[in-house]
Amino acid sequence: MGTCHHPNWIAFARYPSNNNDFPRVISYVNIRLKSLCFLLRKDIFDHRDISIISFTNNDTCHYILNIYSDSSHSALKYLKDTEVNLNQVLIMMGDFNIRDSLWDPSFPFHSSISDNLIMIADLFDLALSSPTNPGPTRFSDTAGESNSVIDLMFLRCGSTELDHHTILPESHLSSDYVPLLIDIPICDEVIQLSKLVITPGSKQEKEFIKDVISNFNLLHTSNIDNVECLNQIVNQLGSIIEQMWSKNAKRSKISKHSKQWWSNLCSLALNNYRESRN
Question: Which domains does the chain carry?
Answer without folding.
Answer: 9-181 (3.60.10.10), 194-276 (no CATH)
